Structure formats: C-alpha cells, structure tokens
Amino acid sequence: MSAVIRLQSADVRFGPVQALHAVDLRIDVGERIALIGANGSGKSTLLRVLHGLVPLARGSLLRDGAARQAMVFQRPFVMRTSAANNVALALWLRGTRWRAAREQALGALARVGLAEVALRNARALSGGQQQRLALARAWCLQPDVLLLDEPTASLDPHAKREVEALMAQFADAGTTLVFASHNLGQVKRLASRVVYLEQGRVLADAPVAEFFDRVRLPELSREADLFVKGETA
Ligand SMILES: Nc1ncnc2c1ncn2[C@@H]1O[C@H](COP(=O)(O)OP(=O)(O)OP(=O)(O)O)[C@@H](O)[C@H]1O
C-alpha cells in the first residue's frame, strides 16, 4: 500500500481554540475512512486540513503530488446559474474547453440522476439535488481522493441512499474516500476504517469490523465505546 496523504503530529488553532491536537493519519490508496465524533470534535477541521485549506500550527502534511483531490462540503457551494454550468465551470477552470466541459457536465449530471434539471438554476434545486450536483462536479474532476463533509446530513432517506450509492460508485472506481458522518449505519455500510475524534484528538483508529466489535472497541478506546453506545442507544 502506498500513502496518498500523511499527516503527522498536526495541531490546528483558531485563536484560543485548539481544534486538533497531535493528529497522526496515514491514508493509503483505496481506503474508505469515516471520521466520527461529537459536534465540535474536529472532523470538519481535519478534512479541511487534508484538503490544504487550513494551516497547521505544528506538524506536517504530505500529499502525493500526482493524486487529484476534490472535496464535497456539507452545504455545497452552487453558483446562480444552471446545474450544467455549475459542473462545466469546474472543468473549464481546470483547462477543459467550454463545449467539451458542457458535454461532460451533462453526462455527469445524468449519472447522478439530474438529467432533467440540468438546465435549471442550481440555486433552485433541493438540498439533495444540490448535494448530487456537488458529487457530479467531483465526478467530472475524476479525483483519486475524495473528501466529503457530512455529505448526507439534512437529506431525506431516499436522497441519503442515492448519495451513498454514488459514494460507493466512487469507491468502486478506486477513489480513496474520507468522509465525516454522524450516521453510524452509513459508516458501517461505506467505511473500511473508522477514526474516532474527541476534542481534536484521535482516540481510536481501526478497521471497521474491529471498531464495531462490542468486545474489541472498549479495549481500543473507552471514549469511543461510550460514544457508539450513546449514538446507538
Ligand atoms: N473558523 C473557525 N474559527 C474558530 N473556531 C473554529 C473554526 N472552525 C472550527 N472551529 C472550532 O474548532 C473546533 C472543531 O470544529 P469542527 O467544525 O472541526 O468540528 P466537527 O467535528 O466538524 O463538528 P460538527 O459535527 O458540528 O460539524 C470547534 O470547537 C469549533 O468551534
């Protein structure tokens, strides 16, 4: 296995708040890593660090320079233009000619089930449709690594399943996934490895089967065990 991202002894500070403490994370090609933990535990901050959006106060971030990376945010950013243009612009910014970008955009929208709304203003789409639009945009960029921050938060069960199916398609295509989630069912369905954060520290990092093993988890981390029991109670 070769690492696509290596984070070592990472600290992040926002003024007086220390959002990450000495985080070590090695991400190998093809892994599907779920970041879990309570609100404010540092999941979004860690994803932003991995995407190079937040500077480290201490430690180091090494990324495979050849690996293409994309991030899907919790509330995707959409521009006030058609869904097709929203996707095409991302390609155009990476150097694809406009006509080709539009064609690829329409293909990607069809792939996420948005063909009928491709010409509609993206701002007028529902939350679930906007999330799928963000995934279509990411799909077009053909990332080797895809980071997702609670991609199904605030979606209804149907939309949630569709987004999960798309994430599984990325994984099947060989994309390395790192996603934050509050949904432990989703974590079991999609992740190969689980990282538990509490107050900015990684307190457990284990393969998914081990993490959800009732005997093994308390041995790995009492805090993670209490969190999982609380979430499934
Ligand atoms: N831009 C910022 N400025 C100041 N503090 C911040 C900033 N971003 C995050 N924080 C703080 O850093 C800590 C970690 O926040 P973060 O958003 O990473 O947590 P999270 O686990 O993603 O939470 P949630 O599950 O609610 O999305 C929190 O105490 C938060 O208030």
UniProtKB/TrEMBL annotation:
<dbReference type="GO" id="GO:0035435">
    <property type="term" value="P:phosphate ion transmembrane transport"/>
</dbReference>
<keyword id="KW-0067">ATP-binding</keyword>
<dbReference type="InterPro" id="IPR017871">
    <property type="entry name" value="ABC_transporter-like_CS"/>
</dbReference>
<dbReference type="GO" id="GO:0016020">
    <property type="term" value="C:membrane"/>
</dbReference>
<dbReference type="InterPro" id="IPR003593">
    <property type="entry name" value="AAA+_ATPase"/>
</dbReference>
<keyword id="KW-0547">Nucleotide-binding</keyword>
<dbReference type="InterPro" id="IPR027417">
    <property type="entry name" value="P-loop_NTPase"/>
</dbReference>
<dbReference type="GO" id="GO:0005524">
    <property type="term" value="F:ATP binding"/>
</dbReference>
<feature type="domain" description="ABC transporter">
    <location>
        <begin position="5"/>
        <end position="224"/>
    </location>
</feature>
<comment type="similarity">
    <text>Belongs to the ABC transporter superfamily.</text>
</comment>
<keyword id="KW-1003">Cell membrane</keyword>
<dbReference type="GO" id="GO:0005315">
    <property type="term" value="F:phosphate transmembrane transporter activity"/>
</dbReference>
<dbReference type="Pfam" id="PF00005">
    <property type="entry name" value="ABC_tran"/>
</dbReference>
<dbReference type="InterPro" id="IPR003439">
    <property type="entry name" value="ABC_transporter-like_ATP-bd"/>
</dbReference>
<dbReference type="GO" id="GO:0016887">
    <property type="term" value="F:ATP hydrolysis activity"/>
</dbReference>
<protein>
    <submittedName>
        <fullName>Candidate ABC transporter probably involved in tungstate transport, ATP-binding component</fullName>
    </submittedName>
</protein>
<keyword id="KW-0472">Membrane</keyword>
<dbReference type="InterPro" id="IPR050166">
    <property type="entry name" value="ABC_transporter_ATP-bind"/>
</dbReference>
<dbReference type="InterPro" id="IPR005670">
    <property type="entry name" value="PstB-like"/>
</dbReference>
<keyword id="KW-0592">Phosphate transport</keyword>
<keyword id="KW-0813">Transport</keyword>
